[in-house]
Amino acid sequence: MNAETVRALLVRLGAWITRRSVDGWRTLRTLLALVRLGLLWRSFCGNTGLALQRLHTAEHGRMRVEVFAVPRLDRYTISPHGWSMRVRLRPGQHLDDYSAVCTPLRHTARVQSVKALELRDQPGFLELRILRRDPLTRVTERPREQAPGRLICGSTDNGDPLVLDFAEHPHYLISGATGSGKSMLLSGLQAAIAPTDAAMVCWDLKFGIEAEAWRERYTEVCIRQDDVLASCGRVLALAEQRAGILRDLGVRNVAEADALGVHLRRVYVLIDEVAEIALDHDGERTADRVLRELLRIVQLVRAMGIHVILCGQRFGSDLGKSVTSIRAQVSGRVCLQVNDVQTAEMVLGGLDAEVQKRALSLHRPGMGIVHAGQDWHYARCSYLTTAEVRALATAHADRRVSWDELSTADIAAAKEPAR
Hints:
With about 425 residues, this protein is α/β, with parallel strands linked by helices. It is about 40% helix and about 25% strand. The longest helix has about 45 residues.
């Protein structure tokens, strides 16, 4: 074991011990806060009208208030940031009754925030999510793969992990101004991918600086437009080969092939500063050809386990003819801090104008707005130091696979399905 490997292991061990110590201390404080609220729950419900009260006349004319029919709490889920608990509603109660008392409950429990949520599949119950601290102040979630194609790379404002789901959204667009944290989020994604058997391809036209730390893990690194154009051909050739395998198996995507025992590795194409790909630098109109090929990729490879992640300050129609069509094919959206509303509209087009304006005032690096269907939430990516990134790249360098190895492995998997 050489010195570089030992150093990488020590860095990872030190980071693990620190995270576990911090998480343990925060969980203990959360438990104490939960016990305190449990002791005050009865009187809180009586004072806010969530429980019924009965006035009794005791001896010598003294008056006594009895609190009864208190909403019952159960199904506690505890995290370092806070906890959630299910509330059994009394007859006649509904979500608005509890939303109205979230602020008093926040002060009673001495926590950061309280949110009441409906449980759609459980009529008569709702959930209270209580955050003792803001999970976006210091993100403790570590990048990892939750399931094939589901990558955790940070935290959301309700304490849940930030999951980029490539099964639901095959491609993602990440937009943000200089210094907004695009590179942080990209590092988190790569840290989640690195321990898996997936192939990583990087198109880094910012002189390859961001790609250098992960170079040992990449299948391919492209730093010029000509290299990107050649890489597009290799991606499309792999997609065509996989399409033939899927046809022979009688399935529609790699997930169904995996269920039959034919494992096709996922391929992630990471594009850092997409505008550099779309602009001509040599007068040969290479950019138009690259954009046409990129459009073919995002349109055709959805089912083949090939995913594209586009990062840039903006991705508007001023960059080329095919840009709008490419953006329309990318359903996954993350908007970090931007400098103008027009850029926010490009990324968060399906959300209200008020939400789009919020993207102009995101004050923390790596913090963004994640578009989730008709809903949205704040999120922040995990922070990895340069030492941690290099340690991860070194530790998982053996998982690097070349284009030829990738193609050969696909053919072999199709001929001999796993049992």
